[in-house]
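Researcher: Re-running this chain for the archive, since the previous output was lost when a drive failed. Same request as before.
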Amino acid sequence: MTEKRSGGRILVDNLVAQGCDRIFTVPGESFLAVLDALHDTPAIDLVVCRQEGGVAYMAEADGKLTGRPGIAFVTRGPGATNASIGVHVAFQDSTPMILFIGDVARGDRDREGFQEVDFAAMFGPLAKWVARIEDPRRIPEYVARAYTTAVAGRPGPVVLVLPEDMLVEEAEATDRPRAPRFSQAADPLAVGAMMDLLKDAAAPVAIVGGAGWCGGASNHFREFAERIGLPVAVAFRRQDAIANDSPVYAGNLGYGPNPKLVERIKAADLLLVVGPRLGEATTDGYSLVTPDHPDQLLVHVHPDPEELGRVYRTDLPICADMYEFAELCSDWEEEVLSFSTGAEAHREWLDWSAPKPTGAALDLGQVVAAMRERLPADTIICNGAGNFSGWWHRFWHYGPCPSQLAPTNGSMGYGTPAAVAASLRCPDRQVVVVAGDGDFLMNGQELATAIRYGANMLILVVDNGSYGTIRMHQEREYPERVVGTDLVNPDFAALARAYGAWAETVERTEDFTPALERALGEKGVRLFHLRTDVEQISSATTITKMRERARK
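Model: Regenerated structure tokens:
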């Protein structure tokens, strides 16, 4: 199309051309021309949120689910700063996402106008690419490049800044066709070298999940690992990277992993790392797998060459698309020695992930057990950050990829917005939010968004009256000197009902299962207010035990 159109119209037309079918936003006066164009664009579903942090979280979650960039629109200044948290999640989680920011007019730039921010300086460390579109004729070029950049190599966020006068200016522009996703094929010689290393290994372990991982990669790698009996561990909050019912699934790394898995990683003579960056959380502060990893060989497979060798000494770097690499492994015809350790590691994980009664009035391990019995295997679990998530990370059995939406950067308030995105993108799947009391109130206002758009989701608010993770660190470093971590909370069930949701309060273990049955008989947004005792500070210990250790 080359006839004259406003910049807003050109932008929306090119989003459609790139396959965009959903936009998350809080409307702003700086991009009214875009909103006006969306009025006549039924191909794009506009989801209006209640705060820009929720906007960015939803777009990031949508990108995780689809593998295509999630799209967010916010206004300048306060809108952009609120949305920056989601951009940071997308960067550290390697999620494709594009954030569009309405900006001051071109002629007013650098005067510190109303809500003006230097977005290149602000988002430079948080995004793969930040650009400002000065000419409406170049909008198709910028949009196509944004889509390409967001999914290329290590996926991540892109930020495009839109001067408000540019969006109303009329111009002739040639729309760009949908940008293809370029993938790096796995080098058969490099994979052959990896297979030779596996033949010589006595105790290899794979660590998977991360940049570019997808359902196809998961299925192919599972087939390969099961054929040779290779133990497969997953990176922090990548527990759906391989379905947990695989007979070689070994559990997750990160915070609170199975001690037997930790020992297995330490004893490994060969680490096959497919996708993860081996970041701080996955490696327990770069100590479980050290950057120089003496006495261990490291094969690192990653879609971005700049990540290979950046932190870790790499014995065999393989730059490849995750799907391409996993497919080549599953189709490998030469015989590779089989290992018994995959089945051993899986048995250890099954024992570790079986919740045992603790005697707590409301035992969260038994709550997870009840959910495992009654919810479908492909349930999508969404959570933010906090000790509450540890019960699900340990005891929930995650299904096929994607079935976990959780920020690896430890961002609070993520679960509810992510679940809204998931319920809209996957309406036939059960979506569950697990949130702490502090975590939930950081974005609980998005209940209004969930109700408005008919989201079908189950929310569990774990209320122990505390910022539990910080309280745990506090008790470890400064036992019995509690300050700044106690919370006074609302009646979360009453709050949910005020939004229009179904809700119940549960305080005893034996009351949860019948309450869950009632919730599953309802539709829409359903919320449980789970009142727990801060004494059970994590899935592994209590405050009393921590204080006893501190006294010794």
